[in-house]
C-alpha cells in the first residue's frame, strides 16, 4: 500500500514542486516503515506522481514483488578508483577522483543532495562492494557507516520550517523528531543490499567496518551564514579540515532563532548546482590480540627496540622477533606490544616465561585454527635461538587486564650471581636464608630516572636462598614483590635502596648476572604442546 494518505497530499505536492525527492517526502511525512524506501527510485517517482494526480485517499501498490525497474548507472570500471566517464552515465569521476553524478535528467534533491536518489540504488552499492572485496579483508559480518555533508542538516532544517508552517495552517504540528532521519532511511535501503551483495549480515558489533564519506562542493556556501550568527560554534580544530562539521552545524541550528534562520537561508531550500560526491570508501578491521609467554636466552637483547637519540644500539629485540611474524601472517598495519613487566637487556627470562600481549592494528586476516596458531608459534621459535614462545593464542582486549594486574600484585623469582669486595665464607651468607618478608624502600634508580618519575617505592623481599661459590662470589635466589629493582637491592644504588645486600652483609656488593626464573601471573592459560 502506498504510504501516503490524503492528509499528506498537500505537503507532498509542496515538497515535490520545490525539488524534493520522493524518499525525503516520505521522511517529512513521517513514513517510518522500510518497504516504500526500498523501491527503485523511478518507480517511487512514478507512483508519487500518480498519487498526487488521483483523488482517492490512497493508491494500492504491490510491493511484495516490485517490477525490476532501476535507475541505470553507467557501467563503472572494475574498481571505483578507476572510474571513467561515458556520455550517458549517471556517475562519473570528478577531477579530485571522487564519484559524482553527471546526469542532467536527474533533478538533484534540494534536501538530501542526491543521497536518497542514486547513492542508495543497487548499482552504487555494487560498486562499493567491489571496493570492499578488493580490499583483501577477511570478514563474516560488517558494520556500515556513512558520513554526510554537514549542510544537509541546514537544508533539512529549512524544509522542516516550510512543512511545519504549512501543517500549522491545517492545525497540525510537526516536531523535528517526527522526521525520519536521513541516515536511518539510508540504512534501511542499503543494509539489505550490502548484506545480499557481500553475503554477510550487517552487525553493529562487527569488528569490520565499511565507511562511505560523502561531500558536497556547496558546503561553505550553505553554512557560512551560521558562522556569522553563531561564531562560538565554529572554532578551528587541528584534526578538522573545515570548521563546518556536522556537530558544529547542529549546535548552531539549535541556537539560532527561526526568524533569523529564515532571513538568512531560503525556505524551501534552493536546488543545488551539483550532486554529492563520494570522497572516500574505507575498510577497516578492529584490532585483534595475541598473547603468550616468552623466554629470553640472550644477555644482549632488549625487550623493545633500543634507540637513543635516533641511533639504534642493538639490531633486534624480543618485541620485533615475535611481532614481525605476527604482522606478516595477520597482514596487519602495525602493532602494540605489552608485557607483565620487563627485563633489562642483559637479563635472561627463564622458567615458564614472561606473559606478553600484542595488539594487531587493522588486520586483514583474522581467522585462524588452533593448529595454524601452533604452526605460527613454531615458526617464531625456529627463527631465533635468542627467544622462545609458548602458549600463543588469540585473546580479547578485556583479558589483557589479567596480565597488567600481575605487574604489581604478583611475585617474581630471580637468580643472581653476586660479587663482594671482601672475602667471604659460607657462614657469612647463611643468615640471608632466614630473612623473610624484608621491607625495603627504593628511590627511583639512577639508571631509569630519565623515564620514570622520582619516587620512593616500598617493596618486599619475601625470601632468599644462598649458594656459596667462592670467597668473592655467591648465588642468591630471591622471591620478591613484583616491581622490585633487583640490581639496586644488591648494590644499593649509592644508598637509594635501603636496606640492600651490601648493607646487610657490611660489604660492597655488585651483581654480575641476573635471571628471571618465574613471573607468577596465571595468564594466559597454559596450552598443551
TrEMBL record:
Signal peptide: none annotated. It is found in: Cytoplasm; Mitochondrion; Nucleus. Residues 109-283 form the Pus10 N-terminal eukaryotes domain. It catalyses: uridine(54) in tRNA = pseudouridine(54) in tRNA; uridine(55) in tRNA = pseudouridine(55) in tRNA. It comes from the Eukaryota. Keywords: Coiled coil, Cytoplasm, Isomerase, Metal-binding, Mitochondrion, Nucleus, tRNA processing, Zinc. Its EC number is 5.4.99.25. GO terms for cellular component: cytosol; mitochondrion; nucleus. Residues 289-520 form the Pus10-like C-terminal domain. It holds the Pfam family Pus10_C. GO terms for biological process: primary miRNA processing; tRNA pseudouridine synthesis. One of its GO terms (molecular function) is primary miRNA binding. Interacts with components of the microprocessor complex DROSHA and DGCR8. Protein with different functions depending on its subcellular location: involved in miRNA processing in the nucleus and acts as a tRNA pseudouridylate synthase in the cytoplasm. In the cytoplasm, acts as a pseudouridylate synthase by catalyzing synthesis of pseudouridine(54) and pseudouridine(55) from uracil-54 and uracil-55, respectively, in the psi GC loop of a subset of tRNAs. tRNA pseudouridylate synthase activity is enhanced by the presence of 1-methyladenosine at position 53-61 of tRNAs. Does not show tRNA pseudouridylate synthase activity in the nucleus. This is tRNA pseudouridine synthase Pus10.
